[in-house]
Amino acid sequence: MTEPGVRRQAGGFDRVIRRPRPKNSAGRDLRSATLTGVCLGAAVLIAAWIGPFAWYPLVAVAVGLAMWEVLTRLREAGYRQPRTFLLVLGQAMLWLSAPFGASGLVSGFAFSVLFLMFYRLFHNGRHNSPENYVRDTAVGIFVLAWIPLFGSFAALISLVDAGKLHGGLYILTFMLCVIASDVGGYCAGVMFGSHPMAPAVSPSKSWEGFAGSITFGVITGIIVVTWLLNGSWMLGVLLGVALVICATLGDLVESQFKRELGIKDMSDMLPGHGGIMDRLDGMLPAAASTWLVLELVAKL
Questions:
Q1: Beta bridge partners of residue 14, listed in sequence order
Q2: Is the separation of the CB atoms in 268 and 275 below 8 Å?
Q3: How far apart are CA 144 and CA 149, in angstroms?
Q4: Along the chain (300 residues), what's the average pLDDT of each consecutive run of 10 residues?
Q5: Is this prediction's pTM over 0.85?
Q6: Nearest 5°: phi and psi at 39?
């Protein structure tokens, strides 16, 4: 029996043109994932069009939900984390960056780390020794860096050189490169992925998918930097490469995090995508590298 395909007449003989088949499964409900992606994309576009006044609240909500997911999963796994305090501190870090920029963000992060270190000393009271002090303090600092610190750079993108160009153009540049990286990696990974990058961490992430992400990310970076931001194509290449590398490593970090906790998704908040953090895992570290490159673009 021949494989399904398109049958054509060639030299008097029937010839079957075989359609390429994916090497790997998509691994998720594409219909739900697409619908969710469209809704998220619409929210991002609206916020980008309005500018920082809409973008900051959108990022703040995403950061808050992602922190709630991660801290809840950690508490379920036995890590003692002051969830409410950390949520408040994470929001303070983000909103301090609005009037004070990166300086406000760094100050907020330093205060949050100090608070956590001192809080953990006395979480059992003054007369009882703290339990798992180093472990739980280190995990809390990791969460503060992983989500609100990196997420605040995503918010800061809207303030990059806003006096010359509308802040929404920088947001759009970031999101288009992220989408291109995701699409390129997903398509190349599903169709051709056969060489795992880090099988002990994430068996499904392949070098072929990484190559697809780099290709799409760089091409999109060149287009958006030159056309939207009037920058050099070389900075577009730098943006694409830096964003894809950070996004890929961010994916691996979350994969290992979930592996150690023994969970598949952070939550089921986003149909077809899992939780908020499952969607932001690569985007958050990519935001930090994007902010650095876009600051460079704005100054040249």
A1: 9
A2: yes
A3: 6
A4: 48 51 54 71 84 92 95 93 95 96 96 93 81 94 96 93 76 92 88 86 88 95 92 92 94 92 84 79 92 84
A5: no
A6: -65, -45
